[in-house]
Amino acid sequence: MDDETRLAQPEVTMTSSGTSHGTSPGAVRPGGRTARVREAVRAATLAELAEKGFDGLTVEGVALRSGVHKTTVYRRWGSVEGLAADALDLASGEPWPVPDTGGAEGDLRELARLVVTGFTDPETGPVSAAFISAAVRNPPTARALHAFFAARHEQSAVIVERAVARGEMPAGTDAAEVVRTCVAPLYYRLFITGEPVGEAVADRAAAAALAAARAGVFVSG
């Protein structure tokens, strides 16, 4: 069996009952040649999304840009939906620069600004927007995006944990709800109304989330 065919064979995991389940697209082995192929395909997928959007994403384009034979890409990722989902899957496991300014006000403000930068930056913005657009129309990408945001909420929870420890928020505050409230107005402007977003908008959203958290709005019942 040659390398191309070997890399194309999807590995499976076995449950205690012996039933096999396929892993996520592209996730065959955690290291070695397979990891390099997966990363090359992910980088090519992001580059294609940045240039052409989700509607312009093709397996052929990713194969050409990554240098991975299109047969391998088809067999391991299946479709453009699989490529997008796997790129999000990889991103969800990567560390995020969660702010640590010494106070909840600064942390939430910087968190909101990170979101704005992610969508307005000339390089990262088109990719982020492409994922959102794809998730609206494509269930596999939507599931991957939901998992991505769940990972981000988990990573950002430390902002609220620190705030509670400092006495800036009441005990029992739901960290995920604070984060959602902080960034939700930004997504509303970006993808619903099309209104401009900037640091002033980000700061206002962060201030609103902080005020609600301090008032105990997000304390779990």
Automatic annotation (TrEMBL):
Keywords: DNA-binding, Transcription, Transcription regulation. The keyword DNA-binding applies. Residues 58-77 bind DNA. The keyword Transcription applies. Residues 1-34 are annotated as: Disordered. Residues 13-26 have a biased composition (Low complexity). One of its GO terms (molecular function) is transcription cis-regulatory region binding. Residues 35-95 form the HTH tetR-type domain. Pfam families: TetR_C_11, TetR_N. This is TetR family transcriptional regulator.
